[in-house]
Amino acid sequence: FPTTHCPGPGHCRRDQHQAPQAGSGMDGVAKTNDDATQSKRSAVDLGYWQDEFIKSFCVTFEKQRKPPLINRGYYARVMSVTRFVRQFADAAGGRAQVVSLGAGYDTMFWRLRVSGETQKHDRIENKPAHGCMKAA
Question: Within 10 Å of residue 54's Cβ, how many Cβ atoms?
């Protein structure tokens, strides 16, 4: 897979890379990612948790308020995964390596980096492999 070093939030957005090809199967994946990102932003805008980076990853900058069940669901997911990663890093004595596969525009790296919880500040973005998915 080709990789690109991502210098910071807003610099690794899909529009800078090859756009998904219609009918490739990736367009649905990209839409799911965009909806998840907007849902996280909705919860952040309502104060469920703090994430100064989520707006940088949104495809559209207009606010979209989601239903309370969606906001609470994303809160539970984000807090659970963040807690698990922190516990894992603590158990490894701060020498843990975390690889997020299929995480979409997840901002955990940036949130942990700003809080000083990461020792090594590398993030690698993989471009989607369009040829690996076939339409059913």
Answer: 24
Q: Is the pTM of this model over 0.90?
A: no
Residue bearing tokens 């703090």: 50
Do residues 48 and 119 lie in contact, with contact meaning Cβ atoms separated by under 8 Å? no
Q: How many CB atoms lie within 10 A of CB 81?
A: 14
Q: How far apart are CA 49 and CA 71, in angstroms?
A: 10
Contact 18, 40 (CB under 8 A): no
User: CB neighbours (10 Å) of residue 20?
Assistant: 18
107 and 9 Cβ atoms separated by less than 8 Å: yes
Whole-Å CA distances, 110 to 82, 114, 135? 12, 6, 34
Average pLDDT, whole number, for the chain?
74
The Cα–Cα gap between 53 and 11 comes to 12
